[in-house]
Amino acid sequence: MAAHRYWLATLAVIVVAAFVHGPAVAADEGLAAWAKVNEVFSHPRCANCHVGADNLPIWSGPHYGSQPRPHGMHVDAGASRIGAENGLLCMSCHGPRNAEANHGPPGAHAWLLAPVSMQWSGRSSAEICAQIKDPQRNGGRALAEIADHVEHDALVGWGWAPGGDREAAPYSAVQAAGFLREWAGHGAPCPSP
Q1: Which residues pair with 59 in a beta bridge?
Q2: Domain range holding 137?
Q3: Tens digit of pLDDT for each residue in 131-161?
C-alpha cells in the first residue's frame, strides 16, 4: 500500500511539474531549435540572396573579407528579382549548375533573389523569426510549408552544395527543415529583440 501511495505521489509531482514548467521548457526548446534555424538563415549561402529593396545581391563569406559587399559587375536584380529591368538577367551568368571554375558563377535551376519581404541580410534573429511566422512576409506559407520548402526546393538546396570553395550552409536541408518543425512544435517562440 505504501508503494502504491509513493507511485501516486510521484506521478502527481510529474504531472504538476509538466503543467507548471511545460510552457517554459517548450519555449526554451523552441528557442534552441530557432537558434539552429537562424544559424542557417543568416549564413551567407542564404542571406546573400535574401536582400532588401535595393535589389543588390551580396557577396560574403570567408574569402570575401569580414564585411559583406555588393555583387560584383554592378549587378542590380531590379524589382523582378531576376534582372529583367536591366537587360542582364541573373541567368545570363548563373546557369542550371555551378560553374566548374573555382570562382565561377554558382548555378541552380532558376537563379533569382528572394522576394524583398523575405529579407534576412542585415536582420537580427528576432526580426527574421517574426518574419518567418508572418504569412504577409513569408510567401503566404504555414510553418510546415516553410519546412517543406527548405527541405525540397532545388534553389534552396544549392546552399548545401554551393560548389567551388564556397562554404556550405550549416547542417543539411533535411536537418534545417527538422529544426523548423521542432521550433513550430514548441510554439514557434522568437528571441527577444
Answers
A1: 69
A2: 32-185
A3: 999 999 999 999 999 999 999 999 999 999 9
Residues comprising the chain, all counted: 193
40 CB contacts (<8 Å, ≥6 apart)? 46, 150, 159, 169, 170, 171, 176, 179
| pTM given for the model | 0.81
Place of cell 570553395: 165
> What is the number of structural domains in the chain?
1
For the chain, how far is it from start to end, CA to CA, in angstroms?
Answer: 53
Q: Grid coordinates in use for 182?
A: 521542432
**Helices 125-133 and 143-152: angle between axes, nearest 10 degrees:** 110
26, part of any domain:
no
* Distance of alpha carbon 72 from the chain centroid: 24
Q: Pick from 169, 175, 167: which is nearest to 156 by CA?
A: 169
Contact 149, 93 (CB under 8 A): no
